[in-house]
Amino acid sequence: MDRIFTLDEARELLPAVIEDAREVIAARADLTEIDFERRSGGRSELGGLAELKGLQARIEEILSRWSEQGIEVKGIAPVLVDFPALLGGVSVRLCWIEGERELAWYHRTELGFAGRRPL
Asked: pTM for this structure?
């Protein structure tokens, strides 16, 4: 069975998620630059194929850790994660997206991001 978070549990994990997300965002930008330069025939000051593979591995490591904790990764550009929860007996996702400072939104599981509402 998938993990069901309380609001307090999800909020307790959020600072670590935000810190990891900063690393994903930086790696995502570096990866994009290295890939662009490689495909354009140039060379990035950030490195080449080895660095690109290292960045991909680091992003996957973070995403795997989140998944192991029961956090659902919905995207990395922007970083978007959901914490499965129940509110009033209804299956919801406590929803956090890159740039937000706190966990302040949710949506019914079947509605997805478009159904976001403030907590």
From this structure: 0.92
